[in-house]
Structure formats: C-alpha cells, structure tokens
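Hi Y.,

Following your request, here is the sequence exactly as I used it, all 459 residues.
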Amino acid sequence: MRSTSSKNRTRRGARAAAAVLAGALALSLTACGGDDNDSGNEQSGTGQETGNTVTLPKLNGESLEVAAVWTGAEQANFKKVLAEFEKRTGAKVTFVPAQDPIINFLGSKVAGGQPPDIAMLPQPGAIKQAVDKKWAKPLGADVIKELQENYSQGWQDIGKVDDKQYGVYYKAANKSLIWYNAQVFDNAGAREPKTWDELLSTAQTVYDSGVTPFSVGGAEGWTLTDWFENVYLSQAGPEKYDQLAKHEIKWTDPSVKDALTTLAQVWGKKDYIAGGATGALQTDFPESVTQTFTGGDQPKAGMVYEGDFAQVNITQAKAEVGTDAKVFPFPAVGDTAPVVSGGDAAVILQDSKAAQALATWLASPDAATIQAKLGGYLSPNKNVANSAYPNEVQQKIAKALIDSGDDFRFDMSDQAPQAFGGTPGKGEWKILQDFLKNPSDIAGTQRKLEADAAAAYGN
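Below is the corresponding structure, written out as tokens. Let me know if you'd prefer a different format.
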C-alpha cells in the first residue's frame, strides 16, 4: 500500500476527530475474547451480506484485463470477486500480475499498445500520473452513482483529479495497528501500551523475557514510511502532516527531526529488532509478520507493526487472529494516537461498456462483501455489512474505519510523487532504509529526504 497530488484529496478532520477514532480503536481492539456478540452482528451500513444489489449489463463474449501488484492470498481472493462478475455478466476477466511501481509497468503496456482495461493503483499520485499521461478515463454515470451511494465524500474525493472522478477505492487499510504474539505477552507479563513511552516500556518487558520485541520488514521501504507517518502524525499533528504531504514545509523542518529522533528510540536499539538492522533489511513484509507468530512462545519477535492486511500473513503462519495474534492501536506519541489509512483504487485505462461495468461492480457492496468474507481485506464501502468480516477483530477494525467518515489521514508517501514516495530503492523508501541502518544520522537523513522531495515535487 503505498500517492498523488494532495490538491485532490479532502483534508477534513482535525486532532479531535482523530482522537475519537483512535479512542474507538483502543476500546474495540484491546480484548478479543470477551462477550461482545452485538458487535459481530452490527452493520456499518445498510448493505446486505448476500443478494444482487447492483445492476450489471450482459457482456457475453467480452474480455477484460485487470492489472494489480497483488500476490498470494490477496490475488486469489480478488480473483473470486472477478469470477462472480463473470458469472453475473458473461464476460471473461483475466488478472494481470503487475510489478511495483505499477505506473512503470503500465507505461510499458501502454507503449506496447496493450494496456489493461483496469488497473488497481495504490497511490493517489499514481492516479494523477495516469490522468496527466492521458491513460486514465473518467468514470461513467453508473459508477459514480454507486460511489455516491456507498462511499463517504472523503473516499470519493481521493479518487478525483481536477474534480473529475477517476478512481474507485475498492480496498482500504487501517495502517495504525501493532500486532502482537499473545503468548509472548502473557509469558512476559506485558500489557498493551497506549502511549509511545508505554510502548518502549512494553518492548523492554518483552526483551527481558527473552524475546526480541519487534519484527520489521525493512526489505520493503514502504513499511518504514508507515512507521514514520504514524509517529509524525501523532507527534507533529494533522496540520503539519498535511503540509509535509504537500511539501509545503521542508523535510529539514524541526518536526521531522523530532519524528526521526523518536523512531531512533526503537530503530537505534539493535537488540529490539529481529536480526538487527541488517536482518530487518533482508526481511520482507510477509516474513516480518509470519516470524512473529511461528516458533511457539519463542518466535523471532513479539510484535510487528502494520495494517489490518497483516491478517492474511498471520493466517499463513497458522495463528488465529484474536487468540494467538492480538492487536492494539499505534500508541500516541503526542496528544493523540494516529489514524493513517491507505487504499487501492480501480482506474479505467480502456474505456468500454464492459470496463465501466466492472468499475461499477467494484464500487458495489456485493463485490466487497465477497472479499470481506475471505479475510485480510478492508473496504471503505459503508454499505458492506460489518458481520461479513470473518472475525471479531476485523469487524471492529472495519467498523472503526467506517465510523471515522471523512476524518482520516491518507498515507503520506502515497500522496507524494511516485519517484519520492513509491519507488523501491529510491527516494523516501531508500533513505529510510539507510536511516534504519544508521539511526544516528538524523540531520543527514533530513537533507537527503529534502533533496529528493524537492526534485520529485519540482520545488
């Protein structure tokens, strides 16, 4: 999950709104074994768990291609959503595996005269690039009608460029969560922290019990940007966050120094990270999760930071969400805990009746409900029944996201030009990997971030 011009994204909601959502998460995610049957049956909206609530045309003989960077269970589950579209319309849909950054992959496809009909773009910045390059096509009236019925204004707006709708945010993420091995915490006598200082204390308690506190998937730089964004949003506040996201303040700003200094309290303690910095930089995101939940009460780490989508990897580790694997909101570094979201948007590259129908399908609660039931997925569609999610933890994460309405902050690196915020081995991803390796070089890291940001933003 990793963005666009921030001009096209709503910036509503302030510190108080973030506190409300963070408080809701804190209340709902702490204990997963209690008697809370009502929450599992609540609906976040008016959608049905089953039933055909969206009207689609007959498309017998039509063929479509959908490109996305999704792999493994995520890809397999999405294919089931596409299969239902095929069943309802008669069209044939082929999933095209894409490489990251997907905008470069699409460029090669366009140059070869074979762009997919729809691409799932993980950055608002990529949507704007696709529009600027005249690849993306505006969404039609049927898609927009579905969006207006099923999405908050904020989720509609981040799919717009110059006030025209181009993206359907099919998939969302709550990226302000820390997952932990319940057995490790029980053995150590550790408690779920609510503040950054309490997180450091909890980490020391876990370390003293003989388990390394944190697993970090540093081989993929986007995980490190997510760490930074949560610390920065909580410590510097939403107004500064918005300014930095738009590069209205420089990365040499004292607020960035403060956030990097805070991060160094974890990243700078090699015994706190599984394998130290070297090991973390060789660990990809899926492994960072699975190694936290394998090995009984002696896993490689007791905690791993990342979004709700980590549940797919937790399941692959044969751990049970809510029992073996529990979760707490990213702790407050400043006055309030952070609430950072991300997402993937369907964008039409080849305009046709079939492509518009598929975009309409992806904007519907019917499509999202299929993948919600399979787990490891979160939809911003407010008319997906909360009970469609397969476990209590995910039901509560989903409810908190929907209840937040427009009061969220979108992933900062996903709002940046892709050269800075979304390219492996370059820009923010690479610089934060270097910072993980040498967390004492705060000033040097700031200078590098600013130089690359200025080049990417053109200012």
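The domain at 57-174+341-410 is CATH 3.40.190.10 (D-Maltodextrin-Binding Protein; domain 2).

Thanks again,
Q.
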